[in-house]
Amino acid sequence: MPAQQQDPFDDLLGSDSPPTHPVRPRSDSFHEGRHIDFFHQSGSPTRAPAAFSQSGPSPDSVSQPTYALDPFFDDDDEYGPDVANSYSGYFAPHGSQPLGHSDPSLLESSVPLANAGAIPAGFSGPMDDADIRGYQASSSRDYAAEDPFKDDEGPSAYAFTAPGASTGWTQPRRGRWQIFRDEYLTDVDWSLGLNQLLRRKNKFDGVPREITLNEPEENRLRGFEKNSVTTGKYGPITFLPKFLLSCIQQVPNVSPTGHWTTIVPLGVVIIASAFKEIKEDFKRHASDRSLNNNLAQVLVDQKFQLRPWRRLRVGDIVRLEANSFIPADMVLISSSEPEGLCYVETANLDGETNLKIKQAHPSTASLTNPHSVSLLRGHILSEPPNSSLYTYDGTFHLSSAHPGSAPTKIPVGPNQMLLRGAQLRNSGWVYGVIVNAGHETKLMRNATEAPIKRTAVERQVNRQILYLFLLLIVLSLVSTIGSSIRTWLFDKNAWYLRLDDESKNKARQFIENILTFIILYNNLIPISLIMTMEVVKFQQASLINSDLDMYYAPTDTPALCRTSSLVEELGQIAYIFSDKTGTLTRNEMEFRECTIFGTMYAQTVDDGKRDQGQRTFDVLRQRAQEDSQEGDTIREFLFLLSICHTVIPEEHDGKMVYQASSPDEAALVAGAEMLGYRFQTRKPKSVFIDVNGETQEWEILNVCEFNSSRKRMSTVVRAPDGTIKLYTKGADTVIFERLAPKQEFSEPTLIHLEDYATEGLRTLCLAYRDISEEEYSSWSALYNNAASQMSGRAEALDKAAEVIEQNLQLLGATAVEDKLQDGVPDAIHTLQQAGIKAGALKLTKKAWTNPHVIVNTETAVETSELLNKRLFAIKNQRLGGDTEELALIIGRVSPLQKALVVKLVKRSTDAPLLAIGDGANDVSMIQAAHVGVGISGVEFLSIRISLSL
């Protein structure tokens, strides 16, 4: 490839064009295992040429990208079909020179930027080998896959992140300006303003960032984004081009017209449309201003001062009071609670209204006053901004009090992460340092920019007007040709009209005749139709806002139509996508039934089930007192329910209220209390259980947390008698494969699970085993080693849990009911009668659905034959018109995945789609659909700015 004459600053500060360097092969030993070193020269950090690492290729560098198995991810969504959709797909010259030195010959060959030693945005000092390894591991991830929304409907939602600006440049560089920003001289690429205006994703979003503690000026110079958030469609500069672009979508606005007779009505149409757009967008900006002007306490000169959210910056240390909302993504430093604990409610993020526990690292938990926090020195190596709500990787590098000592490194994970939009609950105050602000927060990364939506009526009118325009052209041509023929045949006889003037150009006369007939026939184009439609839409929106049938008296909340141009779509909806938690259901779980030792128990038992062996909870309480094998199993079952969880007990008006990370856990703990095993209180290393009036303290040794891949949670505890036990609860599929052989009542339990699933109940299996001191000592060392890893910590902890979660003894299973909202069955029935395809979401049991194919074969050949037969049968049904209308089932999906499913259906059908939800985790899905509807509730106010209705 010939050398390209370009400034290497173009690679670092963000060219808008995709990279043109060739993609390196997958297996290339020359490019693997490279790392970078930093050294100081005249007090300025400079990058040394990349050196070869002797450690060999990193496992992360050869792992498959996380989006490789995502059937909804489109490689063309990022930078086109010919460019790799990965941060590691960007290339920079190997052997790179320090910043400011250009050598075009270095562009002859290419190396992935993450491995070539390019300095990441935000780094200002030397990095040791551990830093480099952590940086390479972080850089090997694929963050580009998080922008699936860059399509025809509008620009990407990702905000541009200015790279760290270098200081000391006295001469302006080519294509850049030196400007004063916040009283500091900054060298900025001239394309920065356009990128910020369009909010395009910067290709350096995949680079980890370094955030200096208690150094606001240094962080300010790095160009981190401010905390101001804008969700409106237009701005003072962008209104005219964006509005005209939307007007161009309506054909009559570009039809040929004649002078004032058409300019005036055309101007009225445009002015009326502009007025409506300005009025609706003004409401969005008003909501933005209200949110951005909320106040927060920021540490300045060892004192906390009130500042609006919009003035917060990355690196600021913030104090939050109880019940306040978190203004930006923050790393927890300390709190008012013992051991640095705090409790947050994440209803705006994941739809869960129960509390989640966050805990500061012991190294910073003791910093509980402004003076001690202001003495904190060092930096945070933080992962790049991304949309994952449940992961975070970072490292505190705290400077030592002894000169010459190495900085202390503290791993930071999801347990220390406080996300924007969450609410601080049951904690007096917390201190945190901001790592992501504004549109870089995880909440905003899960929201797409509001697209310009066109209704089906508008599209149909545009087509009809286009046909009329073509008819206008045809009539004008025919009339012009007819006029020319008539002139040619009769101009000799009409000599007195002097039609045979030879001075006139025939071609010019022909064109003038065409324009004349176009002006005469222009009334075929119904310019007033658009005006009439706008007036009707405005009146329909007013009727919706004043409709008493949609008024909710308990919260004094009327219906609110935020986008009047989409009102007519409501009568043409063919598919509805609905959130389940909080929208279709109340998110209020109730412990209904359980099965222990092969026997089913319930609060009330009818005669039919009594004959099948089901018993009441009163019988269960009696059997729990017996000295028998069944009694021992029941007691272990109840101990597991009251210990293996992350619930926080609160007492309100003499009644115990359980706050949990999921409503299922709260329901299980409440069920244990109903059966005589009451969870009283929690300390950092123990829990207290009231067993029939006797208080017992159980020591919590280790907790293997639940996640969507493990589908289980385990707790290692030391009982009051000194024995060590492992309690595990989770999905039946993962629990049964970890049971010890020869389980006495596994078959009856499986049958009971099928019965619960048929009734639509949520089920969990419970198991346990005793652990010897020797086995626990060996496993504890393995677990602690996994917990101390800087990178890959979550995977290492999962592997450690796998070691001990074996040879379990089955205890039984639970059945919890998630109650539907009032009127949901009637609403679904009405929608089905209207021909709208609607279905339930987030189902996990095959017994809850009518499965298309059940595969239960032992070999690949048998499986292939069965699938081919079933596929042939489905095709025959389709040909015969017997195909069923299937419900769309979505379970355990992220906000972005919800939107991807909507877009998948959107691409395959022209029918209007409606999405409905009640939380910020539904915003992406709502904006991807043609019409978005928000349910007024606990979380509604946080997402109202993104809704159509």
TrEMBL record:
Gene Ontology, cellular component aspect: plasma membrane; trans-Golgi network
Enzyme kind, highest EC tier: translocase
A Pfam family this chain is assigned to: E1-E2_ATPase
Segments for region (Disordered): 1-79
Compartment(s): Membrane
Record: residues binding Mg(2+): D579, T581, D918, D922
Needed cofactors: Mg(2+)
Sequence positions that bind ATP: D579, K580, T581, E665, F706, K729, R762, R892, K898, N921, D922
Catalyzed reactions per annotation: a 1,2-diacyl-sn-glycero-3-phosphoethanolamine(out) + ATP + H2O = a 1,2-diacyl-sn-glycero-3-phosphoethanolamine(in) + ADP + phosphate + H(+); ATP + H2O + phospholipidSide 1 = ADP + phosphate + phospholipidSide 2
Stretches assigned to the P-type ATPase A domain: 291-361
Domain P-type ATPase N-terminal: 211-254
Topology in the lipid bilayer: Multi-pass membrane protein
BP GO terms, sorted: endocytic recycling; phospholipid translocation; post-Golgi vesicle-mediated transport
Gene Ontology terms, MF aspect: ATP binding; ATP hydrolysis activity; ATPase-coupled intramembrane lipid transporter activity; magnesium ion binding
Family the entry assigns: Belongs to the cation transport ATPase (P-type) (TC 3.A.3) family. Type IV subfamily.
PANTHER family: PHOSPHOLIPID-TRANSPORTING ATPASE, PROBABLE PHOSPHOLIPID-TRANSPORTING ATPASE
Protein name: Phospholipid-transporting ATPase
